[in-house]
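$ ./design --mode recover --in tokens.txt
reading tokens...
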């Protein structure tokens, strides 16, 4: 089941990257970048989101400082992709803005589901048990 989840997440990321990437390239070119420079923007932004998500989701072998920087990078990437996709709409209509935000929101939701889903895998539970001397400590629900 885990392989299916990861595969579906990769499909969402790939589809959203295709559309979002073209939006980001268009915005970069409208703001003075040549195509060969503009094509780097979506690679930088979306690859940053995915890379940071993988670091945050890693069940073991990642120190707290790396996790903090990965979380910061993920949120920066989220902001950059939302802004770039919204800017592609030309700020003309609400409908245009919503349509242009779809790939950015898809990347954000897929990334968050991936990160939080990986934290509940058997590997993550084993890593947690190793840190606590073999005891598996159940996650506590936050009081609302």
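writing sequence...
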């Amino acid at each position: 089941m885990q392989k299916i989840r990861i595969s579906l997440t990769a499909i969402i990321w790939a589809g959203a990257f295709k559309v979002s990437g073209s939006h980001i390239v268009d915005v970069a070119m409208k703001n003075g970048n040549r195509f060969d420079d503009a094509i780097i923007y979506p690679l930088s932004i979306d690859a940053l989101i995915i890379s940071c998500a993988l670091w945050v989701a890693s069940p073991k072998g990642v120190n707290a400082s790396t996790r903090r920087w990965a979380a910061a990078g993920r949120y920066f990437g989220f902001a950059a992709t939302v802004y770039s996709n919204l800017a592609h709409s030309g700020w003309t209509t609400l409908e245009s803005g919503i349509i242009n935000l779809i790939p950015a929101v898809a990347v954000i939701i897929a990334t968050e589901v991936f990160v939080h889903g990986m934290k509940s895998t058997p590997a993550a539970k084993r890593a947690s048990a190793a840190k606590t001397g073999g005891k598996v400590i159940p996650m506590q629900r936050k009081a609302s």
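exit 0
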